[in-house]
Amino acid sequence: MTSAINPNDIDGTYPIAGQDNNSQGFRDNFTNTKTNFQYAANEITDLQNKAVLKAALTGTTLDNNMAGSPLSAANISDFSAVAAIIGTTSGTVTIDYTAGHYQTVTISSGAAISLAFSNFPAAGNFGIVRVAITVLSTASTVVLPAAVSVGTSNLQGYSAGTISYGQTGTYTYDFTTSDGGTTVSIFDCSQNMDPIYLPSNQSTTGLFGTISLATTATYINASVAGSGTLAAGANGQIKTIMVSIAGSSYTLTVVNAGWKSAGNGTITLTTIGSAVTLQYINSKWYCIGNNGCAFS
Q: Three-state SS for 46?
């Protein structure tokens, strides 16, 4: 901004001492002084309304809302982002982008949450928010909105829009978008992204509906008859199922079985130590190791 104030409008040599002076000179100086004061007032007010300030001006409240204005060629150090602490809850959890770029939520023990997003930057601008989710129970799940459609193919514990957990703890995810939230990408910041090395293990007795995809190994207590289902995995994922206590049989239904021309197959485990290792390749589970299991 070029200032409109013109100090040359004021005749500093007027009036001239020791002689009569035309009163018009006084009027001109007064008029130009008043005009310059008005320019100064307008420009100061404009700066007060638009400038970024280190502290609030006297009698005002600090508000450095940039309103989407660009900031470029900046050399920044020692800055922080607001952390929005949502607390312990269940049900729908809305991640409001304007609340902070780092947000935390704890899932009530045994409950589930469904994430929703609001106020992402407008399309054409990149937005990122990091969400730390604390899981108190392995029964808890996180349901992702349909917009989260990028980055899920290798997301640990993910199946059909829902993340399950093989162990308790805090899991951190980055959610990004450049189209106003129509399409959202997810990146798992806290877990090993290689599906071969999933954490912990699962142990179950008898009847069990779903074999966890969030763990590398599942131990079966087959002291009573049981059955379960292994859903589709992530490409490259390895899963081992074994009998730790025998006594009866355990029948595992495998979705997309590689030993079948199409559809599901079954694996029967009976004796103690019977085990099978499967790897998910090209959208099918293939057996890469077998100790005493029957396939059909």
A: helix
